[in-house]
Fold these 2 entries.
Entry 1:
Amino acid sequence: MRRFAKARKFSNSRINWVGAPDVKKRVNALVKNLEIDWIKTSRIFAYRSTASKTRAYARIWGLSSLWQRTLGVAPAYIVEVLSEHYDDLSDTEKDKVLLHELTHIPKNFSGALLPHIRRGKRNFHRKVDSLIDLYFQKMNER
């Protein structure tokens, strides 16, 4: 008998994904307004999921180079928002969440994802904070 094994609860509920045109529109607006020129909005797709067990508000999925080569397609990313957490946020908080996810996209738009590195030049959270600061500057200019 394993003394340290965690008990897992299994449920019959499955994660459901549906297209999220409202999220796509919001991503397009953020990229345009903040002049995030390395992001090709035509290759960003948005989905809303329900019944996920994660505590995250959103996730980003990249299409790796091997999949790109195999399928003969260009790099692409999927922004998934988790309905149970994301939908109740204010518009400003939704934008912050989306900016966090967009920060995972490298400047070469290769299909790879940038990790949460906290030190040195590649401080992920510093990049997120600077994008959010720029967002608030643009909001105040209106």
Note: DSSP finds five helices and four strands in the chain.
Entry 2:
Amino acid sequence: MHDEQFLTLRQVLSRTAHSKTAFYEAIAAGTYPPPRKRGRQSLWLRSEIEAAMQAEVESMGRAA
């Protein structure tokens, strides 16, 4: 397996610079992936968050 990593909500919010509310709204809108559950813990794959961030940056460039 390649160098995949799980991120906690705190780590995701730090990387994306979204508030918790805005991030969950982006999940509902399909902009960001929903969390994966490990027991009661919500986790995100780093690669999926990075891909969503890249798509967000590209869409910002098209809107300008």
Note: The chain has three helices and three strands.
